[in-house]
Amino acid sequence: MNELEMICFEIISSVGTARSMYIEAIQEAKKKNFKAAEDLIEEGSKIFFNGHHAHMKLIQNEAKGETTNVSLILLHAEDQLMSAEGFKITATEFIELYKRLG
Asked: Which of 2, 19, 51, 64 has its C-alpha lying 20 to 30 A from 36's C-alpha?
């Protein structure tokens, strides 16, 4: 496995875990377990950062003039990154909504 593939898998793994935690946070908020929900968002954000950091390495390499071959796995990694970021925003909004309703 080459370096690009390793970075892509690091992104996919990190942000996938984070996205799962954001979804779990919504479920906890639904049960009025707001502390657990907020803890999941916080922990998910830390894990998400690992994927974001790996992605940033690729961007920095590109800025130095090192070209990156666009591959399906890279596209998938970036898609997962954006998806997880969207889930975090949605989860945070749901938690606030459940607090107001509770």
From this structure: 51
